[in-house]
Amino acid sequence: MPSGAAVVRYEGKRGVVWRIKYADAAGKQTMETLGPERDGWNRKKAEAELRERLVRVERRGWQRPRPLTFEQYAETWFGEGEARRRWKSTTVAQYVSVRRRLVDAFGPMPLAAIRPRHVAEYVAATARGLGAATVNRDLAVLHAIFKTAMREELVDRNPAEAAERPRVPRFRPSILEPFEVARVLRAFNDDDARCVFLTLVLTGVRRSELQALRWGDVDLVENVLRVRDSKSEDGIRSIAIPATLADALWDRRTRTPFQGDGERVFASPTGGVYAAETFKSHLAAALAVAGVTKALRPFHDLRHTAITNDAAAGSSPIAVMTKAGHANMATTKRYLHLAGAVFRDEADALEQRLLGGRNFYRPESTSDDLTEPEASVHAGSRPG
After folding, report:
1. How many whole angstroms separate alpha carbon 198 and alpha carbon 241?
2. Residue 315: what are its φ and ψ, rounded to 5°?
3. What pTM did the predictor assign?
4. For 26-65, how does the pLDDT look when each residue is reduced to its tens digit (9 = 90+)?
5. Which residues of 225-252 are buried (b: 16+ CB within 10 A; e: fewer)?
6. CATH number belonging to domain 178-339
7. Engineered SS bond to 302: which of 200, 238, 239, 315, CB 3.0-4.6 Å?
8. 70-151 architecture in CATH?
9. ∠ CA(283), CA(288), CA(294), 5° rounding?
């Protein structure tokens, strides 16, 4: 072992702490604190860490980086995020509060000094005031920050790697039944809000997708709506629209002062982004008139209403997934479950393929019937 390299056992007021001492590639003496014995550190683990550092020094010319606080590194990470990671504006807005909470908790701490116990303390404290989904989002961002720091060799481990995540309550959306959709549609006293409602329940687009929709994305000849601005690549899609919605959109285009292909289908009075609060108030009034007492999240639950009823109407799983803009079938399965979809046609098609469409348990079946499917499956040639 090189001269000056050593494992140091330090016994202080708070117990035993293990450290390693070595010279980096620049010859600078470095004393690095690994952690206390209560976190599992001992001589054997410390010696393994020291050997790993010496390999870095010899093979990669490693120099211990300047000490950074979490706040300094996090500000850089968030600052680069929008450009380098191509975050959407909605993601940037969402991360404002995440950044504030993380910096408030870890800001002055040296980046390399943050340990799993600090993360666990943050989770426990944050979970007392915020929902599980929010805490899990914070953890995901914290993990991403340290993953980047590890790649840049600023830290040796990710303290958020094994953090225990709060359990998210079971997802229970409010879904309108078909008769409720018809009642609510008739109850609107605002034509713009009625058209928004109809678009949401017949296409299942997300709020951001609806707000970004331009007239150039709506083909009222072929009756196709094209989603070009979505939160993911899978969300960019074309959706066939029924005649009812096509007529409603055509009527809207004839009435709106913003008719250009580059202008918004649903816009504010000045042509800007359509306000979610505007639709929320009109929807609440329509629900009351229609006598529907379900508490709906205006855009989220109407998207669920569209996709769940689409599945219940007999659409195939792939069609539901594609229309919804889901990245995988796992998300779509939640809607299929809510719809109670049983896929009768698919069951009959499988019977036709495997058994030739015959029921061999009926009394009228004969022994001759039993040989024909087997021959059709295994012969490997067309009859003829």
Report:
1. 11
2. -65, 145
3. 0.58
4. 777 777 778 888 888 899 999 998 888 888 887 767 666 5
5. bebeebeeeebebebebeeebbebbeeb
6. 1.10.443.10
7. 200
8. Orthogonal Bundle (1.10)
9. 80
